[in-house]
Structure formats: structure tokens, C-alpha cells
Write the C-alpha cells for this entry.
Amino acid sequence: MLNRGYAYTTSISSKYHGRTLLYHLASLYPHSAPQAWQQKLNDGEVTLNGVTATGSESLTSGQTLIWNRPPWIEPDSPQHFEVLFDDPHLLAINKPGGLPTLPGGGFMENTLLRLVQKQIPNANPVHRLGRATTGIVLFAKTAQAASKLGADWNTPRIQKIYWALAQNIAQHDAYEILTPIGLVPHPRIGAVWAGSPTGKPSKSLAKVISRTTSTTTFEVSLKSGRPHQIRIHLASIGHPLVGDPLYGFTGQPLENLPGLPGDGGYFLHAQFLKFNHPITGEQINLEAALPDGFS
């Protein structure tokens, strides 16, 4: 699909005052080398405070930087989803693997958000799942529902339960995982969320569902809401997800050219979501059937 392009807009903060624009662009968007950014500048794709930039400008705090990325052909992604719950305030979807929840990582139109909003323009996701993660995504259709769910999301009032297929045979039947999660260096994109002693407090409860000769299927309950929390936490106790291209046995990026956060290959499924309806107070128990990878 050829999309409409996108304007990436940022404001220059005081810590970048005095930087040259070309250096700043290459640092802000490390997926392209300085030479590639200079070509984008020469093509007129970048403006600074509304003026087409050359790259030699010295930045000043408060300036508005815009990269007008031209239209590009997006990678293919599934164009279907299953509706699990629908009323005037909420919509719950069983997201297929390979479909991003929100725009990002080269996807703008081939996303769950765009597919849902074609049918329900006022629906917005309360949370997100990784592109390769399957299962329940909850949308709010009204501002009142969104506000209440947003306030409750990382509290015990919302129960989020996942199934994960992990490497190695678990020695125990249950684990409380408290590995802090923060940003650590990544050779391809600068930084990525991972296990970090200086990271934010995080908590997951993992229970063994089944074992094979080389894998363990866990049921994981989230007690905090950090990025990639289940992938990081299980890896940090010696059980990276089967096929995970990013996280190794310590919950850190793999040493030899780790993949990107959106890369697939692993099996992680948001199976249950339990909460009180934000408007009616009714108890809502959602379940999304397991995909084939867990059978």
C-alpha cells in the first residue's frame, strides 16, 4: 500500500541548543546515515520553523523541526480482525499477528487503528500490543470511557493475562519477576527497553501451563505496564520467548546484531482481559482464542 506520507514534528529542547541540524537529524533518526539525511535535506524534505533547511543550521531551543517524509509503500499486514465485544462505549478486538496496533516503524495505514477507524471513526485504543503479539486490544469510543480506563489501566482493577511460549524447561511452577525495565543501548536504533538495574520497577507473575522437552508455556499476569515487559521479564529468568529476535537470556538485547522491537517470530498472546465496564459497572470478562502456534 502506498500511503500519504507523514510529517514527523519535534520541538528543539534546550539540551540540543547549538547542535547542527544534520547531526541532530542523524542522532534523532539513526535509521539513516548522515549522508542519507543530507540527501533528504537537499530534496527539501526538512523544515526548521517553516523554512526549508540545508543541514548546516545551528539549532535554537524552541524551534519546530519537521521532516516531511514522502509517501512510501508499506509492508503488507493482515487486514482483518475479530470483534470480541462491542457496545456504545467500548470495542474489543482479537488482533492477528503481524498487524501493528498504532502507526510507527514504517506503518501508517496498515495498522489496527486505521482499520478500526474506517468503521468507527471515534474509536481509539486504550493500550497497544506489539506487532507480532496477538490477542485482545481494547478500544474506547467515548472520552468518558477512555478517561476511566486510562486511569485504571495499570491498577489491580484491570486484570491482563497473557500466554507465552518460552525457551527451556521451567524448574519451578510459578515465578514472581521484578526485573526493573529501562532504556539500554541498541546498535541499530540507539536505545531499546530492556532489563536494567537503573530502570523502572516492574512486576509480572508467571505460572507454568505446560512443558515440552525444550519449551515452557507460561500464563503471565501483568502487575505493571512497561514496554515489552513479558518478553524482557521471561528472558531475564532464563526463558526468552521462542523465536524472539531481540531479547536474550538476561533480558538484554542479543549480542550479535539483535533484531528490532517490532520484528516477529515469537508467540505471545493477550488471552484474557477482566475489568468493570467504565460506564455501566458491569463485570466484563474477555477471552481471545489461542492462535495456532500454541496448539
